[in-house]
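Section: Multi-chain targets

For targets with more than one molecule, the full set of components is provided together so that the structure can be written out for the assembly as a whole rather than chain by chain. Components appear in the order listed by the source. The example entry contains two components.
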Amino acid sequence: MMLRRWLLLLALLPLVVLAQGCSTYSYFDVDLKLGDGFNTVVQTGNITKCHVFVTGAATDDFLIGNNICLNSDKLASTKDLGKIRYSTFADSGDVTFTLRLFHLMETDACELGHADTKLTVSSGNTVAGMITVPLSGPGCPQ
Amino acid sequence: MISPTSPKFWTWKKSTRWTTGVVIMGVAAFLLSSSVARTARAAEPGETSGELSGSEGGDKAKPQYSLQASDPDNPTDPEVIAAKKKAAVDAELAKKNKPVDTGPPVYQKWQFWAIVGGVVVALVGGIYATSKIVHSVRGGDVAPCPTDYAGCFGEGR
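Its structure, encoded as tokens over all components, is:
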């Protein structure tokens, strides 16, 4: 009797899982760039944190690696933080990516600049986007 | 013969009577015992008559008869009876305590291990298949991160 119940449960498990619905990854490839104002190594050298916030159909936030964010020489010459790939199970709606660049501390006063892009989810597909952040603030007082 | 007038006559008369009584009783006892023995022999199974017919058949072995009192099948000695009862009880106990032969233990049978193996394989297979199904339903493997990207984030990372 007990064994029969277990077997029934085992047989129903896949159905229960399937009933919850299948998930499909959707991807965003976002190209992060520095805009006007970030022309010299001193200006790019003020960047100490590159923080990306995700809002809308997906909610998240993450930091761009220091090997890229603190590489002031390369940033000054290429103005390119590189591409990021973001994956989500959201199958519809809009996702907004915001890149905020900070000097020393993550406060509004210390923000060097920010920009965002709103992208629409395409279920199972990859949507490309770009963010260009211009220099808009002096950063924290030294 | 003692004269009835003699003073020893009554003593003699009494002793004579007593002796005569003993003799009569002895004869009666003998007759009685022989009669009883004859009746007992007649009751023996397989005997047509109670007589010992040693001349019948000529070369037939003379059957051995024994008294009922010493018959080993019907002992009268209380010790023998008690021993016989004890032996019977022991035999009964031994019969009861004798383990019932049910063959080798179940785990020594190949069918047992076949069933156990089947159940284990089915269980492992079921768990593996379920995990695969669950993983697939949850979106499967996330796309690999391109090496030239600054990073990959989000679900599945």
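The interface with chain B takes residues 10, 13-14, 17-18, 20-25, 27, 29, 32, 52, 54, 58, 60, 62, 64-65, 68, 81-89 of chain A (CB under 8 Å).
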